[in-house]
Design brief:
This is Transmembrane protein. Keywords: Membrane, Transmembrane, Transmembrane helix. By secondary structure, this protein is α+β, with helices and mostly antiparallel strands. It has one domain. 18% of the residues lie in helices and 39% in strands. It contains one helix and four strands. A four-stranded antiparallel β-sheet has the order 1-4-3-2, covered by helices on one side. Strand 3 and strand 4 form a beta hairpin. It is globular. The N and C termini lie far apart (25 Å).
């Protein structure tokens, strides 16, 4: 879990710091709308990241 709770880290906890996560999301991401929240999901290698959505 990254400090601040902005990202939920699953399956792979060794991909670096917060800056790396932001870069990964910029490179490969797609959005998933669930109810009133929009989630940004990013996949890389063996892990995936979920950026907590905000109501839109």
């Amino acid at each position: 879990m990254i400090q601040g709770g902005d990202y939920l880290l699953k399956e792979n906890e060794e991909l670096g710091g917060e800056n790396d996560h932001k870069m990964i999301i910029l490179l490969t991401f797609y959005t998933v709308k669930v109810g009133l929240c929009v989630y940004v999901v990013c996949f890389k290698s063996m892990g995936y990241y979920i950026h907590k959505g905000r109501p839109r």
